[in-house]
């Protein structure tokens, strides 16, 4: 809720740029500011001159309450307008920040002809031959999140965008503002696919603002680079599949079903290939990088095989991370959505899909929460045999991971505490439900062991419990730590380890061990997504000075990689990989990094348990069996 006086419930109504500026600059909000953000039908409290709103009630781009970082007035960049002619499109207006980075925002690359349809390239030229790239573009509707461990970086010069199901496919392009005599060759390009479990976030999220990374690429690292962030469809809008939808797609001449968000990304990559030269970029030197669901996306594009980029970075994720369902399995999810919308399942298929197509966007967005069961709603890919020809690789097939000839340079890595992201999914192995305001579950050893045995059977469950030292006497504190470690191994570390082993000298490998300094439930952990904070550099002023060195090292490594250089030694037969730590960053190997877990992963391989651990971890974190049973449970 935005307003403490009227408790207006609809967070999607927030628009107030004056409100945003007031909070971030540390000034008070008075009565006349409130109508910009509160659409209460009876705003009697607007007449109260002392009425104020707390910064914690700003809704961030992550869909969670803004955590209250502020920007001093002397830290706000000077902003000037810039103009760029883009052949076949027209004149593009953007902004220059301190004369160092030019940003062109909200550029449409595709349009959505209808719900559950493949997007089509955006019209050319722009209407009236102009595009205003000084404003952030709309993002895909998404359910709210009640917790995110990273504060937002302040940007008081930009208004927050609106959610729009049909107009959310846009790019933000950040370009080094360089004198003409310094630009001798086209610049390397980095395209970022954001994470968020294929359900949350957007390219306009403050943590992904490219201005610092782009400015540093030129001024600090002497390798000026263009950075692009992509909006794509999420949740049911981007990934829902089912037999009715497959028939509907076929009626429009579209093969396959689901994965619309991935098809959106394809059009974004093609747009960049066609137009990036107008921005000074080199279409032959494009690095596609993504984190979490973004890394899943990068892997999917590698498997699909269209050479739209020449290098790739996969941060914390391979293709199956967010789940992969067959069309038959997705039918159960489809029916859960129908139930959540009170659409009778016994209607004929034509009526069912018609009712779903006409459902209000806000209702459809809310339906995701009960339908997908887990608190962090996670949208699986559909193995439709079309986006990835044949079938998506199983956990057993990560041993065959290979780098295609058209993309010979791949970086791949993980963080120490990845599966903390799904810890609230473990509420079904807790003695009591998570209390309001708590952000970490308290699983019990007895229920964890019972879940393992019911899913894997006694022999395999016993072997895994011995490997991870889980016994009936394990304390609540220790079971949480061991469960997080086991599921991180199952969904992230072990699959990535075997993938990089299979690729041999074709990849650059890393581990991320830097603990978060932020004071919340995940503080002190090298948790999922914290690597983004250090690479993009927007929150340097919010962290201790000791984080500056590793942040700069990571950012430079990513930029050097995009420029075609080796950021460190390849993961060859010697098995070398980089470890990013707070105290030191080193190049090491599994023989010198005994605490990492390699011995466990090798033992799992020898026992034939790698895929079993992955599937168990998927069950614990994504609750796949419940999701595909088709019986709707009440929302929590």
From TrEMBL:
In terms of SUPFAM superfamilies, this protein maps to: alpha/beta-Hydrolases (SSF53474)
Q: What is its EC number?
A: 3.1.1.-
Per UniProt, the enzyme's principal EC class comes to: hydrolase
Q: Which PROSITE patterns match?
A: CARBOXYLESTERASE_B_1 (PS00122)
Hydrolase is among the record's keywords:
yes
Q: Which family does it belong to?
A: Belongs to the type-B carboxylesterase/lipase family.
**Protein known as:** Carboxylic ester hydrolase
Taxonomic path: Eukaryota, Fungi, Dikarya, Ascomycota, Pezizomycotina
